[in-house]
Amino acid sequence: MDKKSFSDLNLNPWIIRQCATIGVKDPTPIQYHCIPEILKNRDVIGAAKTGSGKTLAFALPILQRLCEDPYGVFALVLTPTRELAYQIADQFAVIGKPMNLKHCVIVGGMDMVAQGRELAKKPHIVLATPGRLADHIDSDETLNFSKIKFLVLDEADRLLGGHFDEQIRTIFKVLPKAKQTLFFSATITETLEKLKETIGTDPFLYEAPADV
Ligand code: ADP
Ligand code: MG
User: Per the Swiss-Prot or TrEMBL record, what residue ranges does the short sequence motif Q motif cover (predicted)?
Assistant: First the structure.
Protein backbone atom coordinates (compact mmCIF):
# COMPACT_ATOMS: atom_id res chain seq x y z
CA MET A 1 0.00 0.00 0.00
CA ASP A 2 1.12 3.58 -0.67
CA LYS A 3 2.61 5.41 2.24
CA LYS A 4 -0.01 7.85 3.52
CA SER A 5 0.87 11.31 4.75
CA PHE A 6 -0.97 13.97 6.76
CA SER A 7 -0.71 16.37 3.82
CA ASP A 8 -2.98 14.04 1.81
CA LEU A 9 -5.76 14.55 4.36
CA ASN A 10 -6.70 18.21 3.82
CA LEU A 11 -5.32 19.27 7.19
CA ASN A 12 -3.93 22.77 7.63
CA PRO A 13 -0.11 22.97 7.58
CA TRP A 14 -0.02 24.38 11.13
CA ILE A 15 -1.74 21.26 12.46
CA ILE A 16 0.75 19.03 10.68
CA ARG A 17 3.61 21.12 12.14
CA GLN A 18 2.19 20.74 15.66
CA CYS A 19 1.95 16.99 15.19
CA ALA A 20 5.61 16.88 14.20
CA THR A 21 6.57 18.56 17.49
CA ILE A 22 5.26 15.52 19.38
CA GLY A 23 6.82 13.02 16.99
CA VAL A 24 3.62 12.34 15.04
CA LYS A 25 4.76 12.37 11.41
CA ASP A 26 2.53 10.01 9.44
CA PRO A 27 -1.10 9.09 10.11
CA THR A 28 -2.09 5.74 11.54
CA PRO A 29 -4.73 3.79 9.54
CA ILE A 30 -7.68 4.95 11.65
CA GLN A 31 -6.48 8.55 11.28
CA TYR A 32 -5.98 8.14 7.56
CA HIS A 33 -9.45 6.70 7.02
CA CYS A 34 -11.50 8.84 9.42
CA ILE A 35 -10.01 12.37 9.24
CA PRO A 36 -11.16 13.12 5.65
CA GLU A 37 -14.68 11.86 6.45
CA ILE A 38 -14.90 14.02 9.57
CA LEU A 39 -13.75 17.03 7.53
CA LYS A 40 -16.58 16.22 5.08
CA ASN A 41 -19.02 16.66 8.02
CA ARG A 42 -19.91 13.00 8.27
CA ASP A 43 -20.76 11.19 11.46
CA VAL A 44 -18.13 8.54 12.07
CA ILE A 45 -17.87 5.30 13.97
CA GLY A 46 -14.24 4.20 14.20
CA ALA A 47 -12.80 1.15 15.85
CA ALA A 48 -9.18 0.12 16.31
CA LYS A 49 -7.26 -1.42 19.15
CA THR A 50 -5.79 0.58 22.04
CA GLY A 51 -2.76 2.63 21.04
CA SER A 52 -3.78 3.04 17.41
CA GLY A 53 -4.13 6.83 17.62
CA LYS A 54 -7.88 7.26 18.00
CA THR A 55 -7.53 10.55 19.93
CA LEU A 56 -5.84 12.45 17.11
CA ALA A 57 -8.25 10.83 14.61
CA PHE A 58 -10.93 13.09 16.08
CA ALA A 59 -8.84 15.87 17.69
CA LEU A 60 -7.10 17.00 14.47
CA PRO A 61 -10.23 17.55 12.34
CA ILE A 62 -12.06 19.14 15.29
CA LEU A 63 -9.18 21.61 15.77
CA GLN A 64 -9.13 22.39 12.07
CA ARG A 65 -12.87 23.16 12.09
CA LEU A 66 -12.56 25.13 15.30
CA CYS A 67 -9.98 27.52 13.90
CA GLU A 68 -12.41 28.27 11.06
CA ASP A 69 -15.26 29.05 13.47
CA PRO A 70 -14.21 29.67 17.09
CA TYR A 71 -17.47 30.44 18.88
CA GLY A 72 -18.98 29.01 22.06
CA VAL A 73 -18.43 25.49 23.34
CA PHE A 74 -17.47 23.78 20.14
CA ALA A 75 -16.87 20.14 20.98
CA LEU A 76 -17.88 17.88 23.83
CA VAL A 77 -15.79 14.75 24.35
CA LEU A 78 -17.19 12.13 26.72
CA THR A 79 -14.99 9.39 28.13
CA PRO A 80 -15.63 6.70 30.74
CA THR A 81 -12.72 7.64 33.04
CA ARG A 82 -11.04 10.72 34.50
CA GLU A 83 -7.62 9.56 33.34
CA LEU A 84 -8.76 9.33 29.73
CA ALA A 85 -10.35 12.79 29.95
CA TYR A 86 -7.00 14.27 31.07
CA GLN A 87 -5.01 12.33 28.46
CA ILE A 88 -7.25 13.54 25.65
CA ALA A 89 -7.15 17.10 27.04
CA ASP A 90 -3.35 16.98 26.89
CA GLN A 91 -3.37 16.02 23.22
CA PHE A 92 -5.86 18.79 22.37
CA ALA A 93 -3.76 21.29 24.34
CA VAL A 94 -0.50 20.42 22.59
CA ILE A 95 -1.89 20.50 19.07
CA GLY A 96 -4.19 23.48 19.76
CA LYS A 97 -1.52 25.66 21.36
CA PRO A 98 -0.97 27.99 18.34
CA MET A 99 -4.67 28.89 18.35
CA ASN A 100 -4.88 29.55 22.11
CA LEU A 101 -7.23 26.68 22.59
CA LYS A 102 -9.34 26.90 25.75
CA HIS A 103 -10.38 23.57 27.14
CA CYS A 104 -11.94 22.39 30.37
CA VAL A 105 -11.96 18.98 32.08
CA ILE A 106 -15.17 18.09 33.95
CA VAL A 107 -14.64 14.94 36.00
CA GLY A 108 -15.60 13.66 39.42
CA GLY A 109 -13.48 14.26 42.49
CA MET A 110 -12.91 17.96 41.73
CA ASP A 111 -14.66 21.04 43.07
CA MET A 112 -18.07 21.56 41.40
CA VAL A 113 -18.02 25.34 41.89
CA ALA A 114 -14.59 25.79 40.32
CA GLN A 115 -15.65 23.56 37.43
CA GLY A 116 -18.83 25.60 36.99
CA ARG A 117 -16.72 28.75 36.68
CA GLU A 118 -14.56 27.09 34.01
CA LEU A 119 -17.63 26.02 32.06
CA ALA A 120 -19.05 29.55 32.24
CA LYS A 121 -15.93 30.84 30.46
CA LYS A 122 -17.15 29.01 27.31
CA PRO A 123 -14.17 26.79 26.60
CA HIS A 124 -13.78 25.54 23.03
CA ILE A 125 -13.52 21.91 24.08
CA VAL A 126 -15.12 20.25 27.10
CA LEU A 127 -13.73 16.86 28.10
CA ALA A 128 -15.96 15.11 30.58
CA THR A 129 -17.00 11.95 32.29
CA PRO A 130 -20.79 11.53 32.01
CA GLY A 131 -21.64 11.53 35.72
CA ARG A 132 -20.06 14.83 36.59
CA LEU A 133 -21.25 16.62 33.46
CA ALA A 134 -24.81 15.39 34.10
CA ASP A 135 -24.52 16.80 37.66
CA HIS A 136 -23.61 20.21 36.25
CA ILE A 137 -26.50 20.09 33.76
CA ASP A 138 -28.93 19.15 36.56
CA SER A 139 -27.71 21.89 38.89
CA ASP A 140 -27.19 24.84 36.53
CA GLU A 141 -29.92 25.79 34.09
CA THR A 142 -27.81 28.54 32.55
CA LEU A 143 -25.31 26.12 31.05
CA ASN A 144 -25.55 26.41 27.31
CA PHE A 145 -24.40 23.71 24.95
CA SER A 146 -26.46 24.87 22.00
CA LYS A 147 -23.40 25.85 19.96
CA ILE A 148 -21.82 22.41 20.06
CA LYS A 149 -20.71 21.27 16.63
CA PHE A 150 -19.09 17.97 17.64
CA LEU A 151 -20.03 15.28 20.10
CA VAL A 152 -17.33 12.65 20.61
CA LEU A 153 -17.84 9.44 22.51
CA ASP A 154 -14.40 8.03 23.21
CA GLU A 155 -14.49 4.38 24.26
CA ALA A 156 -18.08 4.50 23.01
CA ASP A 157 -18.72 0.84 23.73
CA ARG A 158 -18.03 1.47 27.41
CA LEU A 159 -20.26 4.56 27.48
CA LEU A 160 -23.38 3.10 25.87
CA GLY A 161 -25.68 0.37 27.03
CA GLY A 162 -24.45 0.24 30.62
CA HIS A 163 -24.50 2.19 33.85
CA PHE A 164 -23.82 5.53 32.12
CA ASP A 165 -27.14 5.39 30.23
CA GLU A 166 -29.14 7.75 32.41
CA GLN A 167 -26.33 10.33 32.58
CA ILE A 168 -25.80 10.13 28.83
CA ARG A 169 -29.53 10.75 28.29
CA THR A 170 -29.36 13.86 30.51
CA ILE A 171 -26.44 15.15 28.43
CA PHE A 172 -27.91 14.34 25.01
CA LYS A 173 -31.07 16.28 25.92
CA VAL A 174 -29.20 19.60 26.11
CA LEU A 175 -27.23 19.11 22.89
CA PRO A 176 -28.41 20.56 19.59
CA LYS A 177 -29.79 18.16 16.99
CA ALA A 178 -27.56 19.51 14.24
CA LYS A 179 -24.09 18.37 15.22
CA GLN A 180 -21.52 15.89 14.08
CA THR A 181 -21.27 12.73 16.16
CA LEU A 182 -18.05 10.73 16.36
CA PHE A 183 -17.82 7.41 18.14
CA PHE A 184 -14.47 5.75 18.76
CA SER A 185 -13.74 2.52 20.55
CA ALA A 186 -11.51 -0.52 20.55
CA THR A 187 -14.29 -2.83 19.41
CA ILE A 188 -17.64 -2.10 17.88
CA THR A 189 -19.12 -5.43 16.96
CA GLU A 190 -21.40 -5.89 19.95
CA THR A 191 -22.57 -2.31 20.19
CA LEU A 192 -22.66 -1.36 16.53
CA GLU A 193 -26.44 -1.43 16.20
CA LYS A 194 -26.79 0.61 19.37
CA LEU A 195 -24.25 3.12 18.09
CA LYS A 196 -26.04 3.50 14.77
CA GLU A 197 -29.35 3.90 16.54
CA THR A 198 -27.88 6.62 18.76
CA ILE A 199 -26.40 8.52 15.83
CA GLY A 200 -29.58 8.29 13.75
CA THR A 201 -27.79 9.06 10.49
CA ASP A 202 -25.79 6.94 8.11
CA PRO A 203 -22.31 7.16 9.60
CA PHE A 204 -18.99 6.42 7.96
CA LEU A 205 -17.82 3.20 9.52
CA TYR A 206 -14.18 2.21 9.86
CA GLU A 207 -13.03 -0.91 11.60
CA ALA A 208 -9.31 -1.62 11.58
CA PRO A 209 -8.26 -5.11 10.57
CA ALA A 210 -7.37 -7.21 13.60
CA ASP A 211 -3.62 -6.84 13.09
CA VAL A 212 -3.59 -3.02 12.75
P1 ADP B 1 -5.97 4.98 21.32
O2 ADP B 1 -6.98 6.02 21.73
O3 ADP B 1 -6.29 4.39 19.97
O4 ADP B 1 -5.75 3.94 22.36
P5 ADP B 1 -4.11 7.19 21.50
O6 ADP B 1 -4.86 8.17 20.68
O7 ADP B 1 -4.17 7.37 22.97
O8 ADP B 1 -4.57 5.70 21.13
O9 ADP B 1 -2.61 7.20 20.97
C10 ADP B 1 -1.62 6.41 21.55
C11 ADP B 1 -0.25 7.08 21.41
O12 ADP B 1 0.14 7.13 20.05
C13 ADP B 1 -0.22 8.51 21.91
O14 ADP B 1 0.94 8.68 22.67
C15 ADP B 1 -0.16 9.35 20.65
O16 ADP B 1 0.53 10.57 20.85
C17 ADP B 1 0.57 8.44 19.70
N18 ADP B 1 0.20 8.69 18.30
C19 ADP B 1 -1.03 9.00 17.84
N20 ADP B 1 -1.03 9.14 16.50
C21 ADP B 1 0.23 8.89 16.08
C22 ADP B 1 0.89 8.90 14.79
N23 ADP B 1 0.19 9.17 13.69
N24 ADP B 1 2.21 8.63 14.76
C25 ADP B 1 2.89 8.35 15.89
N26 ADP B 1 2.36 8.35 17.15
C27 ADP B 1 1.03 8.60 17.24
MG1 MG C 1 -8.23 6.26 23.26
Answer: 4-32
45 in ligand 1 pocket by Cβ < 6 Å?
no
Among the bound ligands, the one closest to the CA of 60:
1
Q: Kindly state the DSSP code that residue 39 receives in the 8-state scheme.
A: H
Q: With a 6 A CB cut-off, is 59 part of the ligand 1 pocket?
A: no
Q: Which atom of ligand 1 is nearest to the CA of 48?
A: 3
Rounded Cα distance between 52 and 106, Å, is: 25
For the Cβ of 28 lying below 6 angstroms from any atom of ligand 1, the answer is: yes
CA quadruple 109, 80, 11, 69: dihedral sign = negative
The interface predicted TM-score of the complex, written ipTM, equals: 0.98
Q: How many residues does the chain have?
A: 212
pTM above 0.90, yes or no: yes
- What spatial distance separates the first Cα and last Cα of the chain, rounded to whole Å? 14
Is 68 within 8 Å of 78 (Cβ atoms)?
Answer: no
CA distance 75 to 60: 12
